[in-house]
Amino acid sequence: QVQLVESGGGLVQPGGSLRLSCAASGRIFSIPAMGWYRQAPGKQRGLVADITSGGSTHYADSVKGRFTISRDNAKNTVYLQMADLKPEDTAVYYCNARVLWRAVVTDYWGQGTQVAVSS
What is the pLDDT of residues 92-109, one digit of tens each? Predict the structure, then answer.
């Protein structure tokens, strides 16, 4: 099994910044991809950003230029630096890791961390 532990959420004013972290541990050979998703009340969970083990990134249009995803492969950790936050960024943010172990790829999810943007 694999555990994902997230941290860094909270309440911030519009225009502010937050940094989310997610560390994976357990039965891991490699993690081909890691990402962040979010779910606002009454909406479906959607991709915010993801990153491959080689460093290729992909962002949702709504966060391009404001959010930056990065990872430390040695620590099996992914980060999401969020800047110029807007009220519409308010959501529960979930970490995702696509883990390879004994030739089997499995998606794992963190417990979620709340981000609230409000004045």
Answer: 999 999 999 999 999 999
